[in-house]
Amino acid sequence: MYSIRTDLAVEARELYKGREIPGVSVEEKHLEGIKVTKVKILNEEGEKAMGKPVGDYITIEAPGLIERDLDLEEEVAKVLADIIKEIANLTENTQVLVVGLGNWNVTPDALGPRVVSNIVVTRHLKEYAPQQFGDEIRSVSAISPGVLGITGIETAEILKGVVDRIKPDLIITIDALASRRLARLSTTIQISNTGISPGSGIGNRRLSITEQSLGIPVIAIGVPTVVDAVTIANDTIEYLTEELLKQTKEESPFYEVLKNMSQQEKYSLIQEVLTPYVHNLVVTPKEVDLLVKNISSIISRGINLALQPGLTEKEMNQLLH
Amino acid sequence: MYSIRTDLAVEARELYKGREIPGVSVEEKHLEGIKVTKVKILNEEGEKAMGKPVGDYITIEAPGLIERDLDLEEEVAKVLADIIKEIANLTENTQVLVVGLGNWNVTPDALGPRVVSNIVVTRHLKEYAPQQFGDEIRSVSAISPGVLGITGIETAEILKGVVDRIKPDLIITIDALASRRLARLSTTIQISNTGISPGSGIGNRRLSITEQSLGIPVIAIGVPTVVDAVTIANDTIEYLTEELLKQTKEESPFYEVLKNMSQQEKYSLIQEVLTPYVHNLVVTPKEVDLLVKNISSIISRGINLALQPGLTEKEMNQLLH
Amino acid sequence: MYSIRTDLAVEARELYKGREIPGVSVEEKHLEGIKVTKVKILNEEGEKAMGKPVGDYITIEAPGLIERDLDLEEEVAKVLADIIKEIANLTENTQVLVVGLGNWNVTPDALGPRVVSNIVVTRHLKEYAPQQFGDEIRSVSAISPGVLGITGIETAEILKGVVDRIKPDLIITIDALASRRLARLSTTIQISNTGISPGSGIGNRRLSITEQSLGIPVIAIGVPTVVDAVTIANDTIEYLTEELLKQTKEESPFYEVLKNMSQQEKYSLIQEVLTPYVHNLVVTPKEVDLLVKNISSIISRGINLALQPGLTEKEMNQLLH
Amino acid sequence: MYSIRTDLAVEARELYKGREIPGVSVEEKHLEGIKVTKVKILNEEGEKAMGKPVGDYITIEAPGLIERDLDLEEEVAKVLADIIKEIANLTENTQVLVVGLGNWNVTPDALGPRVVSNIVVTRHLKEYAPQQFGDEIRSVSAISPGVLGITGIETAEILKGVVDRIKPDLIITIDALASRRLARLSTTIQISNTGISPGSGIGNRRLSITEQSLGIPVIAIGVPTVVDAVTIANDTIEYLTEELLKQTKEESPFYEVLKNMSQQEKYSLIQEVLTPYVHNLVVTPKEVDLLVKNISSIISRGINLALQPGLTEKEMNQLLH
Question: Example GO molecular function term (chains A, B, C, D) (predicted)?
């Protein structure tokens, strides 16, 4: 068996094609060029329906980002900052650890480490020169722990170790996601207060990074940077069978053949097409390097705005380097 | 209309499924873990059948390269060196310009520039210190001219300009190709004496880089590093319809529907699946960065062995840096 | 013998310590945080005095750039744009080729290629879609030809070849320079209309890149990114002997010793200190990677502003990628 | 006041110019092209004399590495492997955590992270597939924790956290060092069993990374990649005053001036030469990027040989990627 992967709550919801989902509430807001959707999974029923844990999933969709519109980029950063502030219940003294998940050697998975490299990091300044860096600066630290394949250590274990030592009040993770839709690549941002579940993201983690496992709230920011090739192949099958069904009379025996084509049959087909890589293939626009670069600078901007409201742009820039 | 792209002569030939192709001769050789196929397009008839100009297309296929077997890598480099020597009719005094085609900012297109960065470059040494660097060293120069989108200049124009100035006897180009088959990615190398035609390679060039346009022979080395997403979608359709045809009786009206599904219909379907990127989407293994790195070091090794038979490994290494 | 290298006209002039220099006129302008000095070498006498060819050398000095002040960065970009426009006599139809000199693999020498990667390149757009990209866009192309050591070809030869093919009206080169003063690193920009002489820049070119050699005017933009270690050692000697001279009576025989210490003696000393690298050593701040990144984005911004006054910021950004 | 920095025990010893040092034993071994020196600091007296803690400091010096001799490189890797095995008392079951110290964005400080990227990492394999990866493989994990300036967290804190979680038996750190001598850059390797003291290395750490602080033995491998500019300036003064002293009669009053020039005076001079960067300036060969690349591959090879004696070269390569 196989499943079409999506890490996005808005996409899990789309599978319901507009029908109401039990245990799930949805709220939409439209700004200029930006759509903000808040999916709340309210209870166990909602968890089952959506395949995701109880919690809030807010999605920013800004298709215009594909065109490098600087005004829109700044606008998205501000919307992101507002959402972070709200979902994180930030107070003045909340100490934050920003975590860039993913593998910096693999372009579409390098989103997290890239964002981290542009976060205004202040924890050491406040610690070593508290008079100079006072209350207008929040204590922020940041790490990119790498991935299991290059460290031999589960990311969750590294984080648990670091959290136990430096005791932040909140973690914000940034991760590259897989989407079902090409149009979302580098134009959609999901913010949730549920942390990271095993198996999500491009990196296939085995342990969860959540309030339960780490003892402090975890805000997870994710951006789709790839579509699984399995998704593309599967969608092609879906579209084609739909097309064929339209042309076939319902009483035709062939109608039954199409209708009853099992998941297993579909998967065998996909496997044949995608051999020898199958589950390891991603579909990306050729210019993925650039797309990841742009969206990661928007996200680090948004996080900096959320975490350091007391700093001017100039001060931020000076601290950045 | 659309066409499934392949830059490989062996794949163009596969479309004939074993049937003889008029105007084309094929020869295969099997070494341990390496298959060498020589496709000769002999005349206009062959050109039409294959969609490629008259000339020799030699392909090295070594699926084992995917497993990082150092012995196999060295073996492939040597086979490549032998093929280059043969196809290029190298004499002692042949001055060679090695050209890395492609965009160094786009991982799967960076193959050419990466190879060039490991070529033993000697032209300046021979020119400025002819006594010290004598006949045992061949004059080799190397450039990575960039791509139209980042220079505003057709690669062929830059090369024409450089060739007119420095007057080499032979050009060897290295380019990333698109394949029809995932199994070929970074494991197949094509060497041809026909140069580069417009539209081939990942970079979509508009002018040819050939003996005709440059005035000197052009050996083109290419390695598939991506499969077009259109190919994956198309293959899925092909496999599915084939599967369905098997289950359908020939007299069934549905059989006709499937048989007669037009290219246009297929393409509309593919377009729907791949919107908004369609022709700009590539399918790659996640670890493409690594695959490109490995195969490019094999190719630069092969070229260095072919061009500098008079140098020991040690001397090569010292000249390399 | 040895000489302390400077590629900057303002530094050559400083050696005269305020005295008037025959054949040289100097003009200074002070803006907020920016000093602009225009050194005009008027005739052969001036050439000899300054060790540089007849022409205009305009220097922008903005020490504040070291502090990442975004407003100052934008201001410097605008001042640079104005100077380029003036010195280049740009008309609407002037077609420009921007050339990034230097080696992209060597951080302090990578300035030129980095600038080029952010130039708005339009030549191909105007050529292939003249109706769509009209008179409000200037034809600009851009290349980074590499350095002799990695291509085996003199940069001047590559440029001559390209210029002969694509026939631009003007070349703008960008190059990393050596300075005598650490305070100038990444905070000083020199613009001249004399092109590039052999031996200047970090890359040690042997052929000139000038109007005389290429047939079209060459504007050279340079930024110091390193100080030769020889300069540091030499300065230490100078300062020390000066200090000692102050403490020594003029009639003392030792005074004579110090006064008459020959260049040769000084150089032997320096050689001893800097063995085994001597002429290949550079002094840089640890954070040179960052400094080069910042100043190169200022310069590409300045060039884009100068060359494309008809484009809005938004249009520039869209064309950039 | 100031001090000339050296992180190398062999250099601290050189200051004694051959005299015996109380509390310190020295042993030298000469192989072909490689000199191995073992400095043992035996007691408090030795600590004071050398400015380094009690322990073993073994230095591999191979000046020939500058010439990219592949045989010598392999030989050095093997010598390094033997030293690691001996100094670490490795048994079959020793679980090792390899730590790449330093900032990957700053070329000469990127040595540690570069080495880590080529370590054969196996901990996760042994944990998740113990039958498949058995006793012939040692459990090795690896991280590059970043530096205080980019994480806001002391490296020692991150390591303490990780060690508490994954409980390795031994840590091996790799770090870029400052040397007093240019000839050592990328050709000298120091291995010690004392861990890392505050202030050592290029990165200026404040907390120690030692058996005392982490609870498990720490082997520190270091390679000089820069010389402080202060050292160069200071050496120039030393050489010059020595030269002048030779030319001055002892009864001359000037002799006294030179003899008595205080550290403070020297430092003021140096400060004047190196303003505005002073303590932040490094001297490197232009080709430092390349030097760091070469030496880091030698070190990762040496570590892999030491830690995984049960693996063939082929198996190592396959595990590496």
Answer: metalloendopeptidase activity
Helix then strand count (H, E) for chain D reads: 13, 9
Q: Do A177 and A186 meet the contact criterion of CB atoms below 8 Å apart? A: no
Stretch (H or E) spanning D139: none
Q: How many CA atoms lie within 13 A of B29 on its CB side?
A: 9
The residue count for chain C: 321
Confidence grade of residue A135 (pLDDT, cut at 50, 70, 90)? confident
Query: How near does any CA of chain D get to the CA of C262, in Å?
Result: 13
In a domain? residue C34: no
Measured distance CA(C8)–CA(C57) in Å, rounded: 8
In A121-268, DSSP assigns E strands to 140-143, 170-179, 188-192, 218-228
CB contact under 8 A, D166 and A148: no
Using DSSP bridges, classify how beta strands C218-228 and C188-192 pair: parallel, antiparallel or unpaired. Answer: antiparallel
Range of the domain at C106: 92-230+280-319
* C246/A252 Cα distance (integer angstroms): 109
Helix (H) or strand (E) segment spanning residue C262: none
Q: 88-117 in B: which are within 8 Å (CB) of C? A: 105, 117
State pLDDT tens for residues A10-33. Answer: 988 887 877 889 999 999 999 999
Give me the amino acid identity at C196.
I
Query: Which residue in chain C has the smallest CA separation from A72?
Result: C314
Low-confidence residues of chain C, pLDDT below 50? 1-2
**Residue D134 belongs to domain with CATH number:** 3.40.50.1450
Half-sphere exposure of D163 (CA within 13 A, CB side): 24
CA C195 to chain centre: 10
Residue of A210, A207, A235, A233 lying closest to A220 (CA atoms): A210
Residues B100, B114 contacting (CB under 8 angstroms): yes
How crowded is the C-beta side of B3, counted as CA atoms within 13 Å? 9
Q: Which residues of C touch B161 (CB under 8 A)?
A: 158, 160-166
Whether this prediction's pTM lies above 0.90 is answered by no
Among the listed residues C37, C121, C90, C110, the one whose alpha carbon sits nearest the alpha carbon of residue C219: C90
SS3 assignment, position A50: helix
Per CB-CB distance under 8 Å, the chain B contacts of C142 are 150-152
What is the helix (H) or strand (E) element at residue D263, kind and residue range? helix D263-274
Which token pair is A198? 């095993």
Q: Report the distance separating Cα D168 and Cα D96, nearest Å.
A: 6
Measuring CA to CA, how many Å separate D211 from each of A305, A313, C142, D170?
41, 43, 55, 9
User: What's the pLDDT score for residue C2?
Assistant: 47
> Would residue C182 count as lying in a domain?
yes
Q: Is D318 helix (H, G, I), strand (E, B) or coil?
A: helix
β-partners of residue C132 are none
pLDDT at D3 over 70: no
Q: Give me D102's structure tokens.
A: 């330093």
Number of domains in chain D: 1
Whether A190 is covered by a domain: the verdict is: yes
DSSP secondary structure of C62-120? -GGGGG--HHHHHHHHHHHHHHHHHHHT--TT--EEEEE-S-TTSGGG-HHHHHHTTS-
Residue pair D209/D183 in contact (Cβ under 8 Å)? The answer is no
Instruction: Classify residue A285: in a domain, yes or no.
Output: yes
Burial of D169 (0-12, 13-18, 19+ CB in 10 A): middle
Can you name the residues that pair with D172 across neighbouring β-strands? D98, D219
pLDDT in tens, B105-130: 888 899 999 999 999 999 999 988 88
Nearest CA in chain C to B158: C162
Q: Is A84 on the interface with B (CB under 8 A)?
A: no
CB-CB contact of C180 with C230 (8 Å): no
Give how far A10 is from chain B: nearest CA, Å: 19
Q: Determine the Cα–Cα distance for residues B291 and B65; give it in Å rounded to an integer.
A: 9
The residues facing A59 across adjacent strands are A37, A190
